[in-house]
Amino acid sequence: ILLSATSEKRVAGVVMRMGIPYASDSPQTKGLLYALSTGVATLIGSGNIYWPHIHAADAAQAIHLALEHSPSGEVFNACDDEPVTMKKFFNDVAMWVGGPAPRDGGKAGTPLPTARSFTPLYYSVRMSNEKLKQLGFRPGYPTYREGYQAVIEAQ
């Protein structure tokens, strides 16, 4: 709808496709860290799906750059610099918070009926921020490693 309205010059805007945002004060991030530290977190299937990530501060930078410096109607991916599988991400973060390695879960792509709001997490997504970098985007947390380690230190 936005792209159509923009092309018809009825509205000006850009589209930002965001990776999974995280921050030290986010309830979702705190919940994930708790789940990984206590061994409650379970992988979706074997965990070989890709999740794009972005720290909230980097997301704010991306939005600012896109709104201030891009032509109307552009589409951008806002994510960090490194695609990572759920399994690698969960294993790394669990290790950093002193938790056990997460268990393999059920069949990938079949969310529980009570987990509708989490359905997007069942899809493997690889994104690139190269187009956003042409506007000057430089993530303060280039990968989930720097970002989540900073979040953990802030807890």
Question: How does this model look, in words?
Answer:
This protein has helices at 2-7, 27-38, 56-69, 86-96, 130-133, 144-154; strands spanning 15-18, 20-22, 50-51, 53-55, 75-78, 84-85. It is built from six helices and six strands. The strands form three sheets. A two-stranded parallel sheet has the order 1-5.
Sheet with most strands: strand arrangement: 1-5
- Quaternary status of these chains? single chain
Major sheet size, sense and barrel closure: 2 strands, parallel
Write down the Rg.
17 Å
Secondary structure tally: strands = 6
Note the total helix count: 6
Order of helices and strands: HEEHEEHEEHHH
Low-pLDDT segments: 108-116
What fraction strand? 5-15%
Helix content class: 25-40%
Structural class: alpha/beta
Summarize the structure.
This protein has 155 residues and is an alpha/beta fold. It has helices at residues 2-7, 27-38, 56-69, 86-96, 130-133, 144-154, and strands spanning 15-18, 20-22, 50-51, 53-55, 75-78, 84-85.
